[in-house]
């Protein structure tokens, strides 16, 4: 069946969504550098004409995917913050939401992370923006609950550690290991960011840090 005929039969479907889905799969499979527009066309079954009517290049499509997923993460985090849960529970839920987001992106997240080393890349800028916004939300919740402010360097170190654990989740398919990694991420968040007085109250429910991950 010709691509033109396939295109006609798909009239009315969201070509942008099809292209993004195909591109995400291609980027996740071969990486950003090796992915071609032709690969994306084959994966999404969209014509070249339609592709260039919607996107300027594979970089344009990649950047739009990146922006979309970054915005999705921040919506999830703000949704957690808006709940009536106590601050330590919000922190746990926010960490879980972040790890879930990484796992859902899967191979595509690895490709995004491969762009972090370039300080001028959109991926690097969005990562910094996400971590800074996440840190501000945590600090504001902490200030509302306890009246003081968190050390921004300490918050940044905790979030970077949790991000690293997210990478470990992608690398380890063992369910038992995944549970330990998630527990350790919450452990890091609570131990580093919760005030000492709260840690004394939380001690019975603190996740136990695994000896190995």
Order of helices and strands: HHHHHHHHHHH
User: The CATH topology of the largest domain, please?
Assistant: Tetracycline Repressor, domain 2
Count of runs of 4 or more consecutive helical residues: 11
Radius of gyration: 20 Å
- pLDDT < 50 runs, ≥5 residues: none
State the CATH superfamily name of the largest domain. Answer: Tetracycline Repressor, domain 2
**Average pLDDT for all residues:** 86
* Portion in strands: under 5%
CATH architecture title of the largest domain:
Orthogonal Bundle
Bulk shape = elongated
Structure description:
It is a single chain. This protein has two domains: 3-55, Orthogonal Bundle (Arc Repressor Mutant, subunit A), CATH 1.10.10; 62-205, Tetracycline Repressor, domain 2 (Orthogonal Bundle), CATH 1.10.357.10. It has eleven helices and no strands. The mean pLDDT is 86. It is elongated, with a radius of gyration of 20 Å. Helix 2 crosses helix 5 (58-81) and helix 8 crosses helix 9. Helix content is 75%, strand content 0%. The chain has helices at 3-9, 15-30, 37-44, 48-54, 58-81, 87-105, 107-114, 122-146, 152-171, 175-193, 196-202. The longest helix has 25 residues, at 122-146. With 213 residues, the chain is mainly alpha-helical.
């Amino acid at each position: 069946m010709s691509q033109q005929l396939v295109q006609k039969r798909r009239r009315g479907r969201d070509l942008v969504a099809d292209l993004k889905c195909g591109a995400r799969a291609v980027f996740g499979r071969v990486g950003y550098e090796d992915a071609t527009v032709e690969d994306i066309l084959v994966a999404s079954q969209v014509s070249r004409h339609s592709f260039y009517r919607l996107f300027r290049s594979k970089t344009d499509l990649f950047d739009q995917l990146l922006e979309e997923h970054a915005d999705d993460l921040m919506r999830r985090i703000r949704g957690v913050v808006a709940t009536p849960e106590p601050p330590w529970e919000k922190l746990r839920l926010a960490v879980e939401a972040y790890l879930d987001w990484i796992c859902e992106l899967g191979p595509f997240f690895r490709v995004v992370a491969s762009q972090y080393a370039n300080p001028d890349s959109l991926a690097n800028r969005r990562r910094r923006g996400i971590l800074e916004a996440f840190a501000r939300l945590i600090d504001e919740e902490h200030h509302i609950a306890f009246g003081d402010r968190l050390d921004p360097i300490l918050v940044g170190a905790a979030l970077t550690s949790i991000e690293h654990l997210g990478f470990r989740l992608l690398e380890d398919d063992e369910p038992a290991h995944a549970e330990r990694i998630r527990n350790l991420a919450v452990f890091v968040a609570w131990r580093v960011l919760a005030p000492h007085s709260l840690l004394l109250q939380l001690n019975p429910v603190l996740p136990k840090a695994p000896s190995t991950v």
